[in-house]
Amino acid sequence: MCICIKCTATSFFNSHIPTFFFSKAGINASNIPEKEPSSPPNKQSKQTENTSTKVPLATSLVQKAPKKLFDCEMADFKEAENINLDKSAPSTFLRVDKAPTVAVFKLSSDCNADTNPKKVNLGVGAFRTEEGKPWVLPVVTEVERKIAIDTSLNKEYLPIAGLKSFRDQVMKFALGETHPVLLEGRAVGVQAISGTGALRLGADFLRKYHANFEKTPVFVSSPTWPNHVGIFKTAGFTDIRTYRYWNAEDKNLDFDNMIKDFENAPMRSIMIFHCCAHNPTGCDPTRDQWLKIAKVLAEKQAFPIFDTAYQGFASGDPAADAWPLRLFAAAGFEMFVVSSFSKNFGLYNERVGQLTAVSKDKALLPAVQSQLEILIRTNYSNPPVHGALLVATILKSSEYQRQWLDQLNVMSNRILEMRQLLRNSLEQAGCPGKWSHITSQIGMFSYTGLSEKQCDWLKNERSLYLMKSGRINMCAITKKNVDYVAISIRESFEHA
Description:
This protein folds into 2 domains: 103-136 and 412-495, Aspartate Aminotransferase, domain 1 (Alpha-Beta Complex); 157-396, Type I PLP-dependent aspartate aminotransferase-like (Major domain) (Aspartate Aminotransferase, domain 2), CATH 3.40.640. It is built from 18 helices and 13 strands. The chain has helices at 5-8, 11-14, 103-113, 138-148, 164-175, 180-183, 194-209, 226-234, 255-263, 287-299, 318-321, 323-331, 365-377, 386-396, 398-428, 437-440, 452-462, 482-495; strands at 120-121, 187-193, 218-222, 240-244, 246-247, 252-253, 270-274, 303-308, 335-340, 352-358, 445-447, 464-465, 471-473. Strands 2-10-9-8-7-3-4 form a 7-stranded mixed β-sheet, with helices on both faces. Strands 1-12 form a two-stranded parallel ribbon. A two-stranded antiparallel sheet has the order 5-6. A hairpin with a 4-residue loop joins strand 5 and strand 6.
């Protein structure tokens, strides 16, 4: 059933949604940090002219180049012997314990070291082609070539908040350019170091400015992306709770218990949601269910954070994938939207993201942006430009948009095809149980329902590398390996 946002976002919400932190004492627009100074334009020549070879250097100032770039002549440091340092003193690093390896990266490392020609890395969270290779979107390559020969560009620092054209395009991409929030100027965005960086930026801000921080719990789904917990703990939140999400027996959404958890949550709690393509389950609420969630959270005056890592990648339709966050924004919630362009643009190593703040009162947003900029300035000063420029260039051009949407659908359709193929192979192989959840889930990941023992057996005995939770990346399935994967899963029921 399709629910129109304008019809469902009624005045019911407006009486329940408080102004959270945007008006809290201490956020002052006068604290807006000073921007990086930009170089004055050269009035004598165009910006496109390369004058670096035309500036003569005084001969007396030219130093001899080193024979080797990394030379280090220890004879230059003889006087170090006369520095009286007690080398028997305990090391500053003596009490540092080795941290556990991040599971998904350890999994990939183990797979790379495996010599079995049949090995399959089902854990990596990135798109793969039918040949099992990474895919750089052709439109990205085309725009990169255009940028490379654009002599009007330079390597100056970006403003602290990031590339303005990128920030504006991302807000339109996430919310929709005709959304009331944008038309009324009630949103502000700052560029971040991908979605992870945007989440940390939001967590640091809430740690400082949430009206009731000391007693405010942060709720994450059970299960969720593990880094949600890590990010908010590191930011200083101590009360991190879960709301029920996955029904392990039926392998679907545990909606009734999730609503009960929301109804029992403290007032003004922070709620983290996966906007679409839930990681790790691949199981999303329906539109009717999102509406009910919104109504309950309005009564609780909750602050939602929409982690939007798969907009467009889940269904091939960016607007459909953003429907939940647009509903909440239309209802009047103050909230954060976290955008990432790793999956939907294939820009995994460019770390392109944004944090967008939505407020009830646009007059509060200059102060909000100023404090976000302070957090950025004291962390990494300002963001990189390349990935943001790629995304902004594509989103601003109708022709590049068309190409990107076509290529986006190549990725989302391949995932849908592999879901059907794996389900058919599992059923044909005679795997115990029902496997309809493989095709009812959406996005990159599938929560198979396999036990931890089965996952260990598959890794050790069949070189199938998947997370201990049973989560697999559907992009890792190919027409060549699907039968091997399905038969191995059937055997895991017999041996594990």
